[in-house]
Structure formats: structure tokens, C-alpha cells
What we know:
- The chain is an alpha+beta fold.
- The protein folds into two domains: 4-265, no CATH class; 274-374.
- The chain contains ten helices and 22 strands.
- The chain has helices spanning 4-10, 16-23, 44-47, 72-78, 86-91, 132-140, 161-172, 180-188, 307-311, 326-329, and strands at 38-39, 56-60, 63-67, 92-101, 104-113, 117-125, 145-147, 151-154, 202-212, 217-226, 238-242, 246-249, 252-255, 261-265, 274-279, 285-290, 294-300, 314-318, 334-338, 347-353, 363-368, 371-374.
- Strands 1-4-5-6-10-9 form a six-stranded mixed β-sheet. Strands 15-16-17-20-19 form a five-stranded antiparallel β-sheet. It has a three-stranded antiparallel β-sheet with strand order 7-12-13, with no helix packed on it.
Amino acid sequence: MKTLYQNAMEHCAPPEELKERLQKRVFATQPPAEARRVFHPRGFFRRAALAAILAAILCISAVAAVVANWDAILSRRFGEEAAETPMGQAAFQEVLVTSICDDVTLTVRQALCSDKTVYLVLDYHLPATVDPAWMEEICADEDAVLYVPKVSFYATGEVAWEELQEADGALWADLDWGDTTSYSSYLSRSNFLFPYRFLGGASSRVESQGYDAASGTLTYLLEYTAKSTSQSLGDQPLTILVGPPCVEKDGTSTPLADHPALLTFQPEYSSQTLTGTYRDEAGCTLTVTLSPFAINVDTYGAGLESLEDLYHSVFLILSDGTRPALTDLTLGCSGSAGGPTGAPPTSVSLQTTLSELLDVSQVEAVEVGSFTVEMG
């Protein structure tokens, strides 16, 4: 079977909407670090301008294929060749938005976006009170653990860190930022941003990408997939609420800041999300949502025994006639199964991210057991 990359390059013409949008920016370049605009979230629409997306346009067989200057973190996650694919270009955004939150500074360098999934390269600049030499010792110490921050995502529109501080600042002093049981409820539910949450649940992941002692910066790769049927990530500016990273050594937890931080930016991408629904007279319902990054499958009355049963029952039907199994495109999944006590589940759902970028234009249908869900 051809790789997803080979399939993509055989159909490498970018959508006309994307081509026109990127060609308008082809001569824009990324500003040097010292010239980056510092962004305070207040007055987002008045003062924040998204950085240019495009690095170059290459011609492959007389068809323009736009190539972006992906951060090495994104290239490691999806492969260097992914930046050359149409789906990689449609999802890519050079963000370069910085938010100062008292003694903590957040910067989102780049993003890969679809309607429901976003990957962000995030820099967390530590307070000046954190000794870089001590941090280097912690990173080299096999007996120390540097925990990643807890991150929540919100569909806020325009919001400022100062507004969060004014609304929630009195709560922060009572939280132990070295104990997740103390602050996890605040970050997920009991905060000023909670009314702007994405409905329907979500999955997320934070992966450490290292520490730079020269700048006092921790870098992370964030991944977030929303399950909402009524909200898309690009409908409004996206806000991330970031708790402090924490060091644990010799039984003692030391938070690296004493408050959360906040950053808002507007996701910009060309939509590549497919949806499909199957229903029959017996009451069976299946809904599939597919993007270049992730797939979500919800079933009711499909006769599935468990989440594992569903995971091994899903196949993509591609236009070239191939039929890759979901298990070959992912490293696992999360999900749920529910039904009457003592009886087989009536509803089973799964969510998972794909190991490689998927060219969704080549997906005609998704097979779930004996059922076929047409995608469009």
C-alpha cells in the first residue's frame, strides 16, 4: 500500500482558496526574535496581527505546492515531508503571538489547525526568580521530575490576562500550585473562562520539548481535539489557560510560578474536516468525524462489545481502492462504552490522533464493522 505521503503528493495541488491566500503572503518573512511583537491580550482585535504563513512556493510538475518553514518540533511529530503536502499547508499557521502575564511570558510559535484539532508549539518563559543553573541541574537529575503544566482550552473571543487576574486573583493565593489536587478543579471548571468552554468533551496532551537555560524557557507541544458538534476551533479566538510547571524532588513539589498564564490567538486554516453519518431502520446510528490529525467515531446500536472491539473494526476506504485499518494509522485510542447494567453496551465511542497527516481528500468512506459511513 502506498504511504499517506505518496498518496498526498500524487494529489498535491492545494485548494484554490488556500493557494490564493498564501500567494498574497509569499514575500512575507518571519521576524527575528528581537523584533517579535509583544502581545498583551487586551484589545486583541485592535492590536494583534497574525504573522505571515508562507516561506516559499515550489512548482512540482507545473503545480504550485506551498512549502512552509515548519518548526523542528512539528517536523519531528509528523515527519519533515509532511510540510510539503497540501494538507500540511492548509493546516499550518505561523502564529508568533506573545502574552505577558505578570512574571510569566507565553509565546505560541506555530500551529497546525483543523476544525476540531490543534497542535501548538508553546514557549513558557519562567519568572526571573527561577535560577537557570538550578533548572539545568533538575533537568539532568534522574531523581527529579519536571512535570508539564496543566493546560485548558476555551472559545473566548477577546479576553485579557488582567481580566482573569481581577476575576480569579483572590483564589490563586489559596491554591497549592505544587499539588494537582488543589488546583486541577480551578483550571478545568472553577475559573473565569469556564462559560467559554468547548461543549461535548475533548482530549488533550502536553509533551515537553526541553529547557533553554539561556532564555529561561520551557517548550511544549500541545495537542487538543474538541468533540463539540456546534463549535469549531476557528470560529473565534482560542484561549489557552496554562498552569505553572512543577518540579518534584526528594518528596517535595516546587511550582515554578504562583499563578496561571493566559494567551489568546485566532486560529487560521483551510477546513479539511469530513463528517459522515449512517442510520438504519433498526435504530443503529454511527457518526464519524475525520481530519488530517484525528478521527472520532460514535456508535449506537451497532452490536459492538467494547472500545477495543470498535477500535479494531474501523477501516478507511480510500479512492485508490486501499483499505487501511485504523490500528495501522494510530498508536492507540481513548473512548467509552455504555449501556444497561449486565448487558452489552449500546453506545461505544472512540477518539484518537493519527500517527501521520492524513490526506482526507482521498477518503471516500469509513467502514465500522459491517457498516459503511460515506464521508463528505
